[in-house]
Each structure stands twice: as C-alpha cells, then as structure tokens.
Amino acid sequence: MTDHTDTMMAVRLETATGNLSVTERPVPHAGRDQVRLRVEYAGVCHSDLHFVDGELAARMPREVTLGHEIAGVIDEIGDGVTGHTIGERVLVHPVGFVDGETSIPGVQYDGGWATYVVVPAERVLPVGPDLPFDQAAIIPDAVATPWAAITDAGRVRPAEAAAVWGLGGLGYHAVKLLRLVGATPVIAVDPAPAARARALRAGADLALDPTAEDFADRLASAGPIDVAFDFVGNGRVQQQAFDAIEARGRVVLVGIPQGPLVIEDSARLIRLQKSVIGSYGSERHHTEELVRLAAAGRLDLSESITEVLPLDQAETALDHLRNQVGNPIRIVLRP
After folding, report:
1. Predicted confidence band at 303 (pLDDT cuts at 50, 70, 90)?
2. Distance (Å, rounded) from C-alpha 130 to C-alpha 324?
3. Residues 6 or more apart from 51 whose CB is under 8 A from it?
4. Spatial distance between the Cα atoms of 287 and 69, rounded to a whole number of angstroms
5. What's the first-to-final CA gap in the chain, in angstroms?
6. φ, ψ for residue 183 (rounded to 5)?
7. Of 4, 36, 307, 328, which one's alpha carbon is 20 to 30 angstroms from that of 165?
8. Which ranges of 149-283 does DSSP label H, i.e. alpha helix?
9. Is the pLDDT of residue 4 over 70?
C-alpha cells in the first residue's frame, strides 16, 4: 500500500478464474444509509476457500473483495444514518437482503479484506471496549452460526445430551455454546487428536474418534443423545448422527454436503419420530445475544483466534486453513 490517502490495500478475487491478488483500490465512501469502517480485523472462513476454488454463491460479481467477518471503527457516515458516531467500535452482521435476495459483504459486494469497507448502517452492531476486535470479527459467523443451530434449529434444553461432529471453527464453538446453555453431557466427535483435545478444553465431557473400532460402543455408553449436530457435511456423519439419537431426537445439519442426504433406514425416522433439521447461518439477534454474553463475561473467545496474518498474506491464510496448518479455529487478517 502507498501513502496516498485516496487508495487502500484490498484482496480481490476474480470469480471466473479463482485468481486472488492483493492490489491498491480507491478508498470507498459511504453513500446514503451506509457507514464506512476502518477495518481492524477480518476473519478467514471456509466459504472464502470455496469461492477461490470456484464454488461461487449466487450473484457474485466478476471481481470482488473477499471478507464477510469484519470488525472495525466507523470513520465515515453517509446521509440518512442516525444512531452511529465517528470512532464507534462495531462489528458487521453480514447477512442482509436486497429485493428479497441475500446481500453479503465479500460475496455480493466488496467485503472486509481491505483497509476500509462500506456497509449498510443497519448491519453494524456496537461492541464495547472490552471485546477485542479480532474476537468481535468472528462472532457473526463462526460463533453465531452454531449458536443459531443450537438455540433455534436444535432447541437444546438444559440437561439434554448433545453430540457434535466436526470440531473446526463452528464445531469448536458449538461445544462451548452447548456447555453455556447447559447441555449435559456434551460429546465431541472428530478424527483429529488435536481437535478432540481442544474440544475437551472447551468444555466437552467426552471426545471420540469416529474412525475407531469401538466408536459406536463408546458413544452408546455415554447414554441416549437428544440432539446431534453435523458440522462436517457428509453422508457417513449424517448416518452416524441419525443412529446416535434416541426416539424423538433431532439431527441438525449445518455442514453442507456435496451429495444427497443419507438416511439408510427411513422407517426408523418415522417409527421413532426422529427429526432431521437444516440450519444455515444466523440472524442479527443471534449476534446481538452473543455480544451481550461476551460483554458479560459469560462467553470467552480468547482461544478462538489461532493465527493473525497481515492482509498481504491472505493466500497464506487460505493455505493454512485448507491444510489445517496449526489446527486452526479461526484465522484473521489485519490490514
């Protein structure tokens, strides 16, 4: 980046080719009903990997600045905006709608892998001085997605038994959040020893390897499971989760599979009155709830940030995520 005040650094994706480049761009300005943020941190998500690999979302432009997990400081306010001030610490709840279609920064319009980002004012939420920006940035996706799955889709009640398949960024936070709402026991399932150890530190009561010969027996010995969460997105996990839940239990699918839903014995679905529920993303109120919990000291995200890299190392960040270098929970970029 140069010293010019009218340019900034941004990480741009050419959606047709998957080419990623760090380049100078004009600094954007807030239009009506918009605010501009000086970005402090922006998260690196598996969705970003999918976009680079050519798995594009609807209505992505030919070229876009990536980054939908964003926290920063408001430094410009557009016409018509009330209730916000210059210098305000905020995060961005990414999901919005325009003419009935989803509109997300870093997907349908330029996102936060940049020095500055412009977003609708209605999407920003204030965060207090005690919540670090790096943790604030990841709340609306990496934390709010499992929170929505637990509280809305899964409807988890205190003392219900819950199991989590897949202990990446979403599953790790799911373990923490299930503990927070009082699920008992919380069972974590992942083939990676480091991920299982991390889940135990996050509050899991039991951590199991799904590839172990005694997996089914050890899972059954933990007692009947009320609700199971699939953060992986494949048929084997779907079947394991379905088999694990008791009568009237729920399977909540969060990970998006490449193939069809796999439930081998549909008769048991009916006779045992089991439920299979999809959960996608989160809503603004989920993010607001989590910010309040973090501010009150009920939710500790201090171990969630496993690596911080400068903006010009975005490709390194994606490579570390793809190859699970350092067993990441969440990698963040800092402009």
Report:
1. very high
2. 30
3. 13, 15, 57, 60, 66, 107
4. 12
5. 10
6. -60, 140
7. 307
8. 169-181, 193-202, 215-221, 235-244, 266-271
9. no
Average pLDDT on 113-120 reads 98
Q: Which domains does the chain have, with CATH numbers?
A: 7-139+282-334 (3.90.180.10), 155-278 (3.40.50.720)
Nearest to 49 by CA among 271, 331, 265: 331
Whether residue 267 has pLDDT greater than 60 = yes
232 burial (CB, 10 Å; 0-12 / 13-18 / 19+) is buried
Could you tell me whether strands 89-92 and 124-126 are parallel, antiparallel, or unpaired per DSSP bridges?
Answer: antiparallel
Q: What whole-number distance in Å separates Cα of residue 52 and Cα of residue 50?
A: 5
Phi and psi of 12, rounded to 5°? Answer: -110, 140
Contacts of 128 (CB under 8 A, 6+ apart): 89, 295
**Any idea what DSSP says for residue 121?**
G
Q: How is residue 99 written in tokens?
A: 């003419």
Q: Which helix (H) or strand (E) holds 136?
A: helix 133-138
| Distance (Å) of CA 99 to CA 58, 102, 123, 260, 281 | 14, 8, 16, 30, 19
- Beta carbons of 46 and 321 less than 8 angstroms apart: yes
Task: Report the distance separating Cα 69 and Cα 136, nearest Å.
Answer: 9
H helices of the chain, in order, are 46-52, 133-138, 144-148, 169-181, 193-202, 215-221, 235-244, 266-271, 284-295, 314-322
**CA-wise closest residue to 143 among 305, 26, 35:** 305
Query: Which residue stretches of 222-305 are H helix?
Result: 235-244, 266-271, 284-295
Give the number of residues written for the chain. 335
Instruction: Please choose, from the candidates 204, 253, 194, the residue with its C-alpha nearest in 3D space to the C-alpha of residue 227.
Output: 253
